[in-house]
Amino acid sequence: MTDLDQMRDNLLAAIEASGGLDALETVRVGALGKQGTVTGLLKTLGGMSPEQRLVEGPRIQGLREAVTTAIAEKKAALDRADLDARLARETLDMTLPADGIGMGSVHPVSQVMDELAEIFADLGFAVATGPEIEDDWHNFTALNIPETHPARAMHDTFYFPEREGEQKMLLRTHTSPVQIRAMKAAGGNKPIRIIAPGRTYRSDSDATHTPMFHQVEGLVIDKGITLGHLKWTLETFLKAFFERDDIVLRLRPSYFPFTEPSAEVDVGFSIVNGKRVIGGSDGWMEVLGSGMVHRKVIEAGGYDPDEWQGFAFGCGIDRLAMLKYGMDDLRAFFDGDIRWLKHYGFAALDVPTLSGGVGA
Ligand code: 2NL
Question: Which atom of ligand 1 is nearest to the CA of 180?
């Protein structure tokens, strides 16, 4: 065996024995680096005679190629082993449950508004909306509310600063102006059946009153409308809303400027586990205000009161939600506390339907 063969065997053995990329690099530098043994041999070619170079050149170049190839193969093997080790170490358990997606929920007020729309749609009522910033005429005058009425006082209603030659503007105190606008738009010659749900504002704040609250009003205008239509409609609505057949109503004579006669509507409740539940007859609870639309209001809406009659009603949506879903603090409705919303909120795709049960 020549020195060159011996050198090749030693180098190939050293490459094969390298346990890692660092050790392999050391072998490479020792053989092929600037000061390397193989590089040193290549340098000796310059000092040889042409005959000797013809013999030694291919041998030394052969050695260089053999070493280069062996290093490349060893490096690939080490890389592969390294990858295999990492794959074995870094496992990903595909059977673990994924992180939950943060889903929002439908606020009880929105849920109840959807339920109201669904129930009244079945009775032929459309949903009407209008501005929350109203003028004095639509909110008060058209509704036969006198200039001296306490509701018109600064401490009850939120007014905007007055402007020269313009109507007083305010935040609507009920959704009645929406219905006045609907009457005006109808032109005084066709029947109307609408509900008007929405935000309303009064300068009031304690455990059971917030400055902003939600109201729904209903209005029917037609020829030959009586209190009987009113009572049947409210009874049918309350049975559908509270999802009980044992709903009993009591109409108590009352007063509103916009209706004549007027009636407060009480619903029978029963006591279940110390709490009041709608239905049954352990006692009476006031839930709605109602009446036959005052002839002055029919006139203000552009209808002839000798030909057209109507009934109307109004009630708080927040209160309806509390009675149906069992919350006891109104203020929590508008705090935006995520825990309250999670607890009392409704699934976004759980749209109320009469057939599926409006109560979600
Ligand atoms: C209540 C009482 C009521 C009305 C609202 C109304 C609207 C028009 C004409 C006549 Cl356009 N009336 N709305 C009628 C009676 C009662 O609400 O206690 N609301 C919370």
Answer: 11
